[in-house]
């Protein structure tokens, strides 16, 4: 039942063709999406200008390319995360404007105008092995319209490295911290900034790191109260939350 | 080494009483907190106006009262979380202005002026058993200066209840969602709002809820990308993050 | 917005007092529960005649009694599960017609007429220590209107006991099996009947039973494909599902 | 010892050729299956008309084809689950009437007459990644004689999609819900229907989804009491239970 | 249907009072226990002379005493494990001949003649904290008719203590080893003897001993291939298995 | 220090060439293996006639062949478990008398005379997928000199199959039961026999079977007290324990 | 067989009273402890001067006092860890010289001369809740003869506090770090010192700290390679290892 | 801000070109590494002469070679752990002086003079499967300048093997013990020596060894108080800690 069919029904009531009782019966069955629900959903994506996102893991290159092409046709920005080089080759064939961010394993294509300097946020990572997750966060955040400062290789066993980056961190409106192994970096960063810290445990480590569980538990038990946590290796989610935080603040003013 | 002792040293250099080489030696040993580090820490608490917080669990009523009194003497707002009625009785004796929020198990005392209408945020909870955690979040958020809208008893098994609260949710700049059992509510709320959602798993449940682990895992695996997670029953942390999000936005404008 | 306010609005359209555009605007905001949603919810409880249920664990006797009294006032059947003798004492004071099922830890009160012989179902338990959970299932099922056959103390280490009960099991339209320790009984029962088996792991056991986890895993991995599982000690849930199964079948005919 | 040999023995007693003591000795050794036990087993499969099922995972294509051929020779319907394309190629060579359901990874062959419109049931899945498990459930259910309504891609982060399917769900006599990640969909569906919900956790997800454990725990802790759970990815078991539920109801009338 | 009723039926056939067809029908319904099954069960307990055993944990003193009295009336030996001093007081009132083994938490009463020197077996424990479990094993084994050699306080951090007991170990036909913490003792003992070793993890320890799980895992992964494992703290089960081993050997000769 | 060097030393003392103080010093350093320790070790293998065993998993075919050849040269029986067909090809080249037991993945070679009819024991398995583990147990047990009765495909969902094998089970002096999934078979078998039952959880299953953990926990929590457990898939260990049990009994007579 | 009895035997050989063959037989049976083994054990405690230690948890005050008295009679230092005030009261009655260290829950008594300034070591703790474990480590270390520097309340969320203690840490020959929650402090301290760091996870925390497991995993996965770990709350073990490290170094020079 | 810029600033103050207030402002921003922090870091590596270490797992041969070459250019010793033969081939091409330790999977190159006989330490391993981890520890320890005694294949099921090595163990200033399966060896070794024992759980085992978790838990719960633990398979970390222990001792004298 679209806006048009409801109007038609109301016109029927007005004209007397439809009894109010029959109209009531029709309204009682009104599917929820017609009652404005789906519109809100739509409004949200329009208002936020968020790109469409494909989770490429477990999809064939052909499937990724097919979905990418269809989404791109809608005119918005398009992203594919966890995308292999093969997936990019397939996408590139149908969408030559698409770019591949290799470390981040992200395919992106911008079709919308881009406002500079929103944010900024910082994306911090403990070691070079955490880079793929950190880059997924950073690249996605940039496609979501944020200005991103990258701070890499600042593990807690060498505090001077993170301490020397305090000024960059201080300007960030949200800080994403990616760390594997013991996952201690978000606690340290959380003590240095007055902004929300989004901690991303990575599956980097071996033995009793249990594929990121040690880092995840470390972050959930952080002694810095400004730390929240997303799923293991979920760079995309961290970027999305950071965008929400920045937009939530911008919306107000 | 305080600001004064550094100035004194520089004066010595200026007057020629102290050689530059000796001054350099003194500076090389400069404890970090003296080099502005502790000041930043101080600046942050001053700028944010955050109250001092006591984690009362595992402390005797006398200990809580003692710390509370000392903190109150500093002139700022004071909070004690996870505080028993006995702890409040002890606090009340030394600080008659302190208030006890029973459901939230929070003792609070305001000494600073309070700006109305900051935020607002929403605190949502799935069932009445989640109320203590939700109230901890709500009361702490209020002491942190935020305007809080409470939305209670909106479990996912009766969707109409949460759907009827969409307008309240839409105005929130951050949404705290407390849920035990399967922890599904943050995913549903996350789909309804365009703001960051801070999910708080509660230890409510039995059997395979494993004291909140089921809810925690559910929230970490949320299909709504705007969801982040804090520790089980950590209402205080959720409120703190929400305050950081709101202040991070306000700082910009 | 109730049925009446919608009718009023439609009358306004019919009479010309309200434009169709304004009516459309009002409808777009229509809260979901008003659009028939809550009614369905209501229809369901009416059609099924299910009693209201209080989860008494973690509530004070006074709270249980208060809720019980309020629910009883609505005229339907009322149940409280996981209720202590103290809770019953408090309920009994306000509702002398309430009954306490001690082993099942259930307080019940019937106010609706009861149809005999619906079902039947069977409730089976492995050992006498599983009896509280089995009785919770059996008593709740009876309040939900089912005829219940109890089969107790039929552990798999003495097969002749369960084999001698095959005729009772064969008549059941659903079989609830409660077992702790290794949780093997549902698999054995599942091989004996041509009905759905609802397995309830109990927290009975010690050491590596991990409070029912061993039984839970055993049941999830059952080699009998007609076995489904509910949470540890969740006798109430098993009874509810059994009622759904029986009603689902009755609805059809 | 078959029915005939027992009769023979009794005739011997009657004619005096066999003493009652010797007959007693023979009876004391009577294997259980001869005493009617195996017959019940047989009766069940005959009465229910259930097909024979091969679990193809871990078997070579040749083994699957060999078992398939042998079972097909018995004249009933035959199913193989978790079957690869290679397994189907081998089966197809010996049984050209066999069909391959690719997404469901099921090979099936019908030899028995089929009654239309039994049930119906609904098979619901949260995302496209859950489709293989959902299709296994749907295809198996169809071979078990049920009418199946498929409802796909109705995750809880976009409630309007599941809400728009309420009428389809309302007609189902059992609802199978497949979901990975946080596993919240069964709770939401459970609140919308008055039928038993069989929840199937899928291994879809990453990080702290632990191969389906997060979804499994979510479902076991569902706040909707009409939800029961089967093993991770166990679409076959869910279909089997649904068939049992429908037949249990039909048997009665 | 007892032996007598079957004989009666056969006599009926012989005399012609009962047709063979009717006799066949009666036999087809023959409950399994009547077909010799229960007798085997009975034979076993008679042949082995095993006492009746009550698991007293979770039972009231009155319940333990009631069951104890009923079992004692049957004339066999009676045991109650995990029994408190209160339970013994209640038992003693109804059965003054009962004895309480305090460390083992076992109540026992012998009514059957006892053959000396069966076995022998050894019961070994690592530390004094493991004594309650070791004593449960030793006392139960003695009531099961075995001669028991106790070897206490022989932890692996002081090898000379266990090495000095090699001769006692060498004569044992089965060795029960109780150990908490790292559970290493069974591996060491297993290397010293040519007999089966029954390992009993105890819940002794703290922190990462996880209530006996560390010891359990250590024992399951023993590098000595003659080690098998029973549940945490299951001294009773270890004694029972040891009795089975000894009787299995004696039966042969 | 061999027997000879000790004698030599004592001769030196006797002849006066060596002072008693010097002799004492030498003796204080006496390595333990010389003091009879290693001899016991040696005696044990001689007395038991146990073959040498190679754990082939993780070794190259060449390594397996090399060790096999060296062990065979000592004249005893030789076994290699978890051996691939490639490993056998390599062994066969250097030892043409070696045999490959394909399902069991065992390479064996007998060089010692073999006594028939020792035991017997029974090896039982729940499903055909458990066969590799059961065959490892059976083949190893045969090389350890035992007579083995195999009982296959007797899952608990079809009790008549295991019940029809009761006579075979009754003669066994030890019963090895291999089962995956819920691991319920040892409990059922344990109730049918008066012998020790060695339960082997197998890694057969999927989802919440967690590679055999569900079966392991089920077996540890068995309600049949004559059940002990070895590690997941440890068919070798079960056979070894069974041999120990049989020999322990034989030793006595 | 003591040193004296061996000498006696050798004298017998020398004098010809004992044949060398008989002497050899006696030696072959030589219990291990007699061959110098126990002496080494004894030497070690003498050389190291380590006090005797009682683990008081799970022992009654009377038991603790009894063991304490007996040990004190031997003339060495005596320690009891995890001791309650009640246990101290009982000890104090029999040994008035004993001291109670309340926070550390340690009862100690020195009877041996004490060398000052051995070490030193540092004992660091993250928060005031970790103090009991840190004090157990510090007090035990002092009784083991070490000089201890305490550094308290230096959590990683306020780096300036730990940084200001760098000089104290730099002089330590071993550093014990006690931390609960995320357990990040040892990694940070490990980066600041060139000495071995012994990390002690504490059970401080709530929710997903799982009684110290989160801290334990964090420490095992430390990015500082000079970190080793002891059991949760094991302050005693950490002190013991620290003493071993210091003595191992001192022994060399 | 380098040493030079600070001197320049102080000269400005001295000459009057810079006011003391401005100088104070500059100093307040002073990055921490300039204040001597980084120097300490540098001093530490210089003083200890520790080689640079590359963790090669997850890096391409080209990446390993590139980093190796760059580090070697600095003139110190260089190590790469977890390095494949392919990685060595690539390193060898750019640094022909590099050596490959195959079992240890370590590439090393010495450029610094080496002092003999530091330590010594012992590296002990339980079985041949633990050799790769033990060799990683031994080889790394040698590059760190220690003398290493290797003790291999001394599992606890054959105590005479470890007992015969007591003299070698007694001379070690630290003992590294690598063991998989039940991880019992460190407890046994800990009882034999008066030095710190560093336990390394290995991932050797199957089934319930859970990739080294069983060994890890066993070691954390060791009854020998001189045992500390590092991560699973972390031979490098164990060697590093051993070097710290030896240097900590040497530093003192």
From TrEMBL, chains A, B, C, D, E, F, G, H:
Residues 119-251 form the PurE domain. SUPFAM superfamilies: N5-CAIR mutase (phosphoribosylaminoimidazole carboxylase, PurE). It holds the Pfam family AIRC. One of its GO terms (molecular function) is hydrolase activity. It comes from the Bacteria. SMART domains: AIRC. InterPro entries: P2CMN_synthase_LarB, PurE_dom. One of its GO terms (biological process) is 'de novo' IMP biosynthetic process. PANTHER family: PHOSPHORIBOSYLAMINOIMIDAZOLE CARBOXYLASE-RELATED, SLL1489 PROTEIN. This is PurE domain-containing protein.
């Amino acid at each position: 039942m679209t806006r048009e069919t409801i109007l038609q029904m109301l016109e029927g009531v007005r004209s007397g063709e439809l009894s109010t009782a029959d109209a009531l019966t029709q309204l009682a069955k009104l599917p929820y999406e017609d009652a404005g629900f789906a519109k809100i959903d739509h409004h949200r994506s329009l208002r936020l200008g968020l790109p469409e996102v494909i989770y490429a893991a477990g999809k064939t290159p052909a499937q990724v390319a097919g979905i990418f092409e269809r989404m791109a046709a809608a005119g918005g920005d398009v992203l594919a995360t966890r995308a292999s080089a093969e997936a990019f080759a397939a996408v590139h064939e149908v969408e030559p404007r698409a770019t591949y961010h290799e470390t981040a394993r992200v395919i992106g294509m911008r079709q919308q105008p881009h406002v500079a300097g929103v944010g900024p946020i910082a994306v911090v990572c403990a070691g070079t092995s955490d880079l793929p997750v950190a880059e997924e966060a950073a690249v996605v955040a940039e496609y979501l319209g944020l200005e991103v400062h990258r701070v890499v290789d600042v593990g807690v066993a060498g505090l001077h490295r993170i301490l020397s980056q305090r000024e960059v961190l201080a300007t960030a409106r949200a800080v994403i911290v990616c760390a594997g192994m013991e996952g201690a970096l978000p606690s340290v960063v959380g003590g240095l900034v007055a902004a929300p810290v989004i901690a991303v445990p990575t599956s980097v480590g071996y033995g009793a790191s249990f594929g990121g569980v040690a880092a995840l538990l470390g972050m959930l038990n952080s002694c810095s109260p400004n730390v929240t946590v997303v799923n293991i290796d979920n760079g995309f989610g961290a970027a999305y939350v950071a965008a929400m935080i920045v937009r939530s603040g911008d919306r107000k003013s």
